[in-house]
Specification:
Elements lengths: L10 H23 L13 E3 L6 H12 L6 H4 L4 E3 L7 H12 L12 E3 L11 H20 L6 E3 L6 H14 L8 E3 L7 H11 L7 E3 L10 H23 L4 E3 L6 H12 L9 E3 L7 H14 L6 E3 L7 H49 L4 H4 L5 H8 L2
Helix pairs in contact: 1-2, 2-4, 4-5, 5-6, 6-7, 7-8, 8-9, 9-10, 10-11, 11-13
């Protein structure tokens, strides 16, 4: 965006340039100071909202110049992490400008800091173009890398309703397969992203060898219909092994939440086999709600629990599955003794803790009373004798 006048420079051009420079100044100010939340991103500096300004493609081009890491504002463009351009009437031309700025190339660096770009709202013609999917796909590695680098985010990446399409699914697959940071990603939420069977196949290929990702939410994508349902099931079965291993190794209370994963009877059989192993003996509760498990899968679970006499599993949730009452009742009867045993164990631990507390209290009161009878002034100068203890002595 040049500042110099030219023979074809019109008043309209001057107005557009002034508007663009005003937008850039606003972005600069917000990027340096805002601490707001948008799109599931953590509260941090770098949030910029230009919602409803109505600047159309000209304004999008100005913002693109800001995001261009090789341009005049490259350093500031690297500070913008979340950008809201919704309801601005941006069309394909503005979308292409934003895509070019984010992609880099031609000696310019790719933008690696922007994690979320909202181009929704009304009006927003760019949402109907292929450029929108490509833009969102460019941001997927940035979002995943940010989650991998921030322990406070718990390894969970929220990419719900980003309009990623198959390009975004492929970008996610590439990161999870080839990035050194992929092992720190534990959960990815890709619900409602217009992913078709092609995108699901890319994810399946990438996740086949992944041993750390425990969850990938895919509900609300058109690819789950027809043959895509089988692809999703294979994805979920691969991740089910990771989730069970992680629950046995890292969960303090032995709980394992496997709800709404659509792995069906095959997944139930896998869970049954795992519960019969030494690692499975560390699982105290498992949630299998809403997984399409039928009586066949439930019978596998029953056989595993009955044959190996699992002594730790105290709770198994089969609600939301088409399982008959008879087999569900038998499974609950198999785990109920473990539940009673765990309750008795907790009760014993609480009684022991109560007895220890009473003993410590008696010893403390006895010692403080002895100190008071001796007439010592230690209570006035010892920082370890709390005012409450002095009050207790005086009340004896």
């Amino acid at each position: 965006m040049g500042r110099g006048a030219s023979p074809s420079f019109t008043p309209e051009d001057a107005w557009a340039q002034a508007q663009a420079e005003t937008l850039i100044e606003e972005v600069l100010e917000q990027a340096r100071s805002t601490t707001t939340t948008f799109g599931g991103d953590r509260r941090s500096r770098g949030f910029v909202s230009l919602h409803g300004h109505g600047f159309a493609d000209e304004g999008a081009a100005a913002v693109a110049e800001l995001l261009d890491r090789g341009g005049r504002y490259g350093l500031v463009g690297g500070c913008v992490r979340v950008l809201d351009l919704s309801a601005n009437g941006i069309g394909e031309k503005g979308g292409l400008a934003l895509e070019a700025a984010l992609r880099g190339g031609g000696g310019k660096r790719r933008n690696t800091s922007l994690r979320c770009l909202n181009l929704g709202g009304f009006p927003s013609p760019v949402r109907e173009t292929a450029a929108h999917g490509r833009i969102q796909a460019l941001l997927v590695p940035n979002a995943l890398a940010a989650v991998a680098s921030q322990r406070a985010m718990g390894g969970r990446c929220d990419l719900v309703r980003r309009g990623l399409g198959d390009d975004g699914a492929t970008a996610c697959a590439d990161f999870l397969r080839g990035s050194s940071a992929a092992e720190r990603i534990l959960s990815v939420d890709l619900r409602h992203n217009e992913i078709t069977e092609d995108g699901l196949l890319a994810l399946e290929e990438a996740l086949a060898a992944n041993t750390t990702l425990r969850e990938c939410k895919l509900a609300g994508n058109p690819g789950l219909k027809g043959a895509g349902a089988a692809v999703e099931r294979r994805i979920q079965l691969n991740l089910l092994r990771n989730a069970l291993e992680a629950a046995a190794a890292h969960t303090a209370d032995g709980s394992c939440n496997l709800s709404a994963r659509s792995f069906g009877d095959e997944g139930a059989a896998l869970v049954a086999r795992f519960l019969s192993t030494a690692k499975g003996a560390k699982i105290a509760s498992v949630n299998l709600h809403g997984n399409g498990i039928t009586d066949d899968g439930a019978l596998e679970l029953e056989a595993s629990l009955e044959g190996h006499q699992n002594k730790t599993l105290a709770k198994i949730n089969l609600s939301g599955n088409p399982v008959g009452r008879a087999v569900a009742k038998r499974i609950q009867e198999l785990v109920s003794p473990n539940l009673l045993a765990q309750a008795a164990k907790v009760d014993r631990e609480l009684r022991k803790r109560e007895q220890r507390t009473k003993k410590v209290t008696r010893l403390a009161v006895r010692g403080l009373a002895s100190l008071r009878r001796s007439g010592s002034s230690r209570t006035q100068r010892d920082p370890y004798v709390l005012p409450g203890a002095v009050a207790l002595i005086n009340s004896l």
